[in-house]
Structure of Beta-ketoacyl-ACP reductase:
Amino acid sequence: MTDLPGDRPAPVAVVSGGSRGLGRVLTERLLAEGRRVATFSRKPNEFTEATAEKYGDAFHWAAVDLTDTTAVRDFARDVGRRFGSVDLLVNNAGVLHQELFLTTAPKRMDELVAANLLAPLHLAQVCARLMMRAGDGTIVNISSINAIRGYRGVAAYAAAKAGLEGAGRALARELGPLGIRVNTLTPGFFDSDMTAEVTSSNRMKIQHRTPLGRLGTVDEIADAVLFLASPRARFITGQTLVIDGGITC
Ligand SMILES: NC(=O)c1ccc[n+]([C@@H]2O[C@H](COP(=O)([O-])OP(=O)(O)OC[C@H]3O[C@@H](n4cnc5c(N)ncnc54)[C@H](OP(=O)(O)O)[C@@H]3O)[C@@H](O)[C@H]2O)c1
C-alpha cells in the first residue's frame, strides 16, 4: 500500500472502465498523484497487466461487465474490504451503439440503460456509503453532449446520460450534507476507441461545427475530471461542466 507523508493511507479512487481511453489516462494520472486506484473493464489488456506489476497493492483491476449491476455492486463492496475506504468515484465507463431507434432490439435498449445509467447509480450508492463513514468524498459522473443535444441513432445512450445528469443534481442535494460532492462532466467528441469509428467525413463535420476546430484530446478531458475531483473544486457540487470545444454553445 502506498502511504502519503505522515503515514496517512493514500486516498482511494474507483474508476470504471480504466483499461482504455479516458479511464486509462485517469488511472495513470491518479496513480502518479499517489492515489490507490481500483478499476474494472470486461477484459484485461497490456495496460492493466503492466500497471498491476508496477503498482502492486496500490492498483486493483477486476473483470466486470457494466450490464451486470450485481457484479458492479460486488466489485465496489470488494474495493471497500480491500482498501477500507473510497475517496473518489469516477463513473467513466460508457457503452455506445449507434443504431436507429425504430430498429433497435429491446434487449439492446435495456443493456444501454443498464450500462450507462443503472451501473453508475449502483456504484455511486455503494461508494457513497463508504465515503459517508469518512464524511468526505467526491463523485464525478461522465456524461456526453448527447444528453443535451439531439443526435440520430443514440436515443437510449442519450436517455441514460441525461438521466445520469439529473441523478447528479439530486445526489448533490442528498449527499452534500454528508460531505460528498457530486458533479457531472459532459464531454463533446474526443479521440478514443469510442470515436475511432467516426468516418472521416463525419469527423470533418464535427470539426467544422466546433468553434475550436478540432476534437478534444483525452488528456484535456482528464484535466477537467481531475479539477472537479480536486480540492480546488471544494465548493462545487451539483454542477455540469461541458467540455466540448464549444460545439454546443
Ligand atoms: N470518446 C468520446 O468522444 C466521448 C464523448 C462523450 C462522452 N464520452 C464518454 O466518456 C466516457 C469514456 O469514453 P472513452 O471514449 O474513453 O471510452 P473507450 O475508449 O471506449 O473506453 C471504455 C472503457 O470502458 C470499458 N467498458 C466498455 N464497455 C464495458 C462494459 N460493458 N463493462 C465494463 N467495462 C466496459 C472498456 O473496457 P472493455 O472494452 O475491456 O470492457 C474501456 O476500459 C464514456 O462514459 C463515454 O460515454 C466519450
Observations:
- Strands lie at 12-16, 36-41, 59-63, 88-91, 137-142, 180-187, 240-243.
